[in-house]
Amino acid sequence: MAPFVHRHRVRYHEVDAHEHVYNARYLEYVDAAMIELLRDLGWSFNEAVALGFDPLLARAQIDFRRAAVFDEQLEIAVSPLRLGRSSLELSFAVRTSAGEAIADIIVVYVNVDPAESGATPIPSLVRAELERRLTTAATDV
Length: 141
Hints:
Layout: E1 4-9, H1 25-41, H2 45-51, E2 55-64, E3 73-83, E4 87-96, E5 101-113, E6 118-119, H3 124-139
Antiparallel strand pairs: 1-3, 2-5, 3-4, 4-5, 5-6
């Protein structure tokens, strides 16, 4: 199975005076892509939260290749790398629609229980879908 791909056109308010995407925006892009991955798996973000899946960004590593610019169409490919008891590591390959590398990003999300203010296991239903995606991605390599 190919990675899930989220498409995004760079908007004017996301760029600096040089029309380059401001670096912090990339974390917004990956969060949006993660939410759309959940939708692709069958749940809106609110439905996933109702199931007990409320992921918070815990760690991010960004390797920039070149700046994305105003009005450029980006494709953000999302692939699960690792699934822990309460954490999820995702890879985000940010490319232009022509396939030119913009950034490679790895993010660790931790599932939390807002009432307890701490990590909580990923719900079994969500885990099963993420494992299916992870297993399928590994066999496609």
